[in-house]
Predict the 3D structure of the following.
Amino acid sequence: MLNIGAHLSASKGYAHMAEEAISINANTFQFFTRNPRGGKAKEVDFNDVNKFAELSREHEFTKILAHAPYTINICSAEEAIRNFGIETMKDDLEKMEFVPGNMYNFHPGSHVGQGVEKGIELIIFGLNMILNEKYSTTVLLETMAGKGSEIGRSFEEIKQIIDGVKLNHKLGVCLDTCHVYDAGYDIVNDLDGVLKHFDEVIGLDRLKAIHINDSKNPFESHKDRHEKIGEGSIGVEAFKRIINHPALRNLPFFLETPNEVDGYAKEIKLLKSLYKE
Ligand code: FE
Ligand code: FE
Ligand code: ZN
């Protein structure tokens, strides 16, 4: 069975997201833990969390994916911004314990001119502050397009971060198809080669989730503009190979395409029709 979900609005809580996911034939979903500006997270509502647990059991959900606000930057050149990111992520992981055992994805950060090495050093420092043995959530580093001074545009950068973190058994990787294609990994013409390289550098056992997005821009453009499935430079045939690849087919896939809920429903239907049971 294809494990698939889409990025949903968290404004009405977990149970509402689960219902929305069920309505589009998904068995998971992604959501922002708070608004992108990194504002205050909502207080946890026990009724909501319990109803979500019930729905996810009943409908055999796979792990859900929380996404950190993309504006935080734990490798900023400014200490106050770094600390804000660290505090935000800690608070998110505290709250995730109300829906234990799931996943939390974040963008490694932008070094803003300090250089890749300094950036990686600050991300490692931040993660060592954030991670705690008591958290049951797996924290995922997202592969990035390499826009501006983004870190995480190569598998080597991600591996370097993982290696520096003490509690790195809590870490995994979320591969974004739009981002890696933008970064120069040719998943259209050489999916096997890209995954072999991922395995050699990071290890496929670290790969926990896929962001499944087409790209508005050509290969290696470092732009990060998502497109609807089949309408961009990656294309339907490549997605068919991606969702069926033996190394990927059992992972959860999350749509972050420019869609409302009905658009996601169509894409899920399409992807399910391409999946070989
Ligand atoms: Fe992301
Ligand atoms: Fe993504
Ligand atoms: Zn993106």
Remarks:
- Residues 10 and 36 are 12 Å apart (CA to CA).
